[in-house]
Amino acid sequence: MKLATFSHNGTTRIGRVEGDAIVDLASSGLPTEMCAFFAAGEEASAAAARADGPRIAVAEVDLRPPVLRPPKFLALGLNYADHIAETGMKKPEFPMFFNKQSTCVSGSGDPIHLPRASDKLDYEGELGIVIGKRCRHVPEDRASEVIAGFLIVNDVSVRDWQFRAQTMILGKGWDTHGPIGPWITSRDEVGDPHSLELKTWVNGELRQHSNTKHLIFDCYNLIATITTMCTLEPGDVISTGTPSGVGIGFDPKRFLVAGDTVRIEIDGLGTLENPVIDEPASTATF
Ligand code: ZN
Predict the structure, then answer these.
(1) pLDDT tens digits, 168-186
(2) Which of 47, 42, 56, 50 minimizes the C-alpha distance to 13?
(3) N or C end of the chain, less CB within 10 A?
(4) Residue-range domains of the chain with CATH
(5) Is the per-residue pLDDT at 85 higher than 90?
(6) How far is ligand 1, taken at its centre, from the CA of residue 232, in Å?
(7) What is the pTM of this model?
């Protein structure tokens, strides 16, 4: 099952994606927001899988981030060997988690802002895990049970700000710099998440091409590690890291500019495509 969050005719709700259409679940009695939907448990998922409703063409809706405000938005540094090589850094002995801000999420088609404060804007195509169950101390061999599904993440990064502090956080959570989507594909439909082709294009030029089999710390290891430390909740997103081919890895470096379009595809998960625009004046509240 593929579940999207979308806006249409003035309301935002979830629906089941089938081919080029979304089955609107608004009249099914199920929660219309993704975190609440996952919290409602497996019965809600089973009901969503069989529910009927009006069908709306995907092209006619505004696809929103599948989770509008993830309780946590975690990501990984240096989790593919080829990316470590292009950065000249050392392979970490422990997964290098950092936080993206939950306010930076956006949906497929939404613009990525080129900040007024930096021209070192970069893309990172990544596999994202969406948590479906409240959980703590999850054993690695049972970690798949807490995964609702998977989506594509563009871990947009502002490189000069990223390297101003070792936590990297200053470069990772700018508004609009967390495109996620286009929807959530359930784990049963994905099957093995560690055998998926991942490709990123900038303006039609293939920049990243790898496979999730090359992850250093795999999805289950990441969940076991992070739940040793904290509780994960429905709707939390963990982005698993990027392979080589990011803009900063080229010589000369190839940062994003206004007018560019970044498109990411992962097997079975769809396409996440976002244009780059100059940060509009309207972002300032002072
Ligand atoms: Zn990343």
Answers:
(1) 999 999 999 999 999 999 9
(2) 56
(3) C
(4) 2-63 (no CATH), 73-283 (3.90.850.10)
(5) no
(6) 20
(7) 0.98
